[in-house]
Design a protein that fits this description.
Chain lengths: 197, 197
């Protein structure tokens, strides 16, 4: 969930009484994506599979895209790399990991979320919260590098983070995720050169 | 048209006999977008308005997204700025111009094209050709700067171009096109710093 606080506000008393239902809905959605793919994913199909009423689903998820985003977020593993003392390596590792991860079914789901956000304001709002939170995470990498003196203190860490996020989204959206050997390092090197003191 | 050569191959003899039909279809599509917006845009609606048969439309455009892309491309004005001797200014001008242009109806159309490309392979193929052609255009700005010694000769101009294109697409797709004063210059400055000798 991009912003759990939002989600809590959306929950009715009824919903609070049966959190298991929410879990059952997410699991049903995951199963449909796994077995049938994103094209077969709809609120109707998830309701049938979860044996839940559509109003119960709509209580938490106003649309197909918002439910897809939560399933994507829930399934996504934590990034493998912890903090290091090498910003270029951290960014290269992130680009390499995401480009591999998105070449699987997760990428098919996330590109559907971005597509839905172009016509569904609720999905757009939650995707923007999610993207903002991810940019903050990348921004922290850049702030740590700034504290080490690797990055000029005039740099806006969130703008640097946006350049990383933008490039990898663009690769996903234009079917260009397959990287040549050393390509992630080359991209990271050019990005980091722009941040150096 | 992202790639006129492709288009010519797709044209049947019949189509070559009546190029006016193609023009009538594009104009009908433009009128629907202008008067009713992207949500009302469909091959059916365009066929009705152009008094053309759907098979005639499908002869050139296999899907809604491919027709939307051609209408977007056809309406888009040439960039206002010619070559200068200041790469940072050229990139800032491009970002400023596109962020303004995309805050109008053209941005609504282009984000629909990107959304369609996530589920429509024909649209994905033509969008990729179009995006490649636009990156080449930005890459030429960077090559000219390289020839002036503004950019390191180790830089990959197309990677630099992709960073510009990625960032502005990302702003469009996350409803963040409205720039603060000086923001385009700040973005361009950080991008160009990464390219300097």
């Amino acid at each position: 969930m991009a912003d759990p606080a939002d989600d809590d506000r959306r929950r009715s008393i009824g919903a609070r009484r049966n959190p298991d239902t929410q879990e059952a809905i997410l699991q049903a959605g995951e199963a449909i994506l796994l077995e049938e793919g994103p094209a077969a994913f709809s609120i109707e199909a998830v309701a049938r599979r979860a044996r839940a009423g559509k109003p119960t689903i709509y209580r938490w998820w106003p649309s197909r895209g918002t439910l897809l985003l939560d399933i994507y977020h829930r399934q996504k593993p934590q990034a493998l790399h912890g903090p290091t003392d090498d910003l270029e390596g951290e960014i290269a590792g992130l680009i390499e990991w995401l480009s591999g991860y998105w070449q699987g079914s997760a990428g098919q789901v996330f590109r559907q979320v971005i597509a839905e956000a172009q016509r569904d304001p609720a999905c757009a709002e939650r995707l923007q919260s999610y993207a903002t939170e991810r940019r903050a995470h990348i921004g922290e990498m850049i702030e740590r590098a700034m504290a080490r003196g690797e990055v000029a203190d005039t740099v806006d860490p969130l703008l640097g983070a946006e350049m990383v996020q933008s490039l990898i989204w663009h690769r996903l959206l234009t079917d260009r995720l397959a990287l040549e050997p050393g390509e992630a390092q080359k991209i990271a090197a050019q990005l980091v050169r722009g941040l150096k003191p």
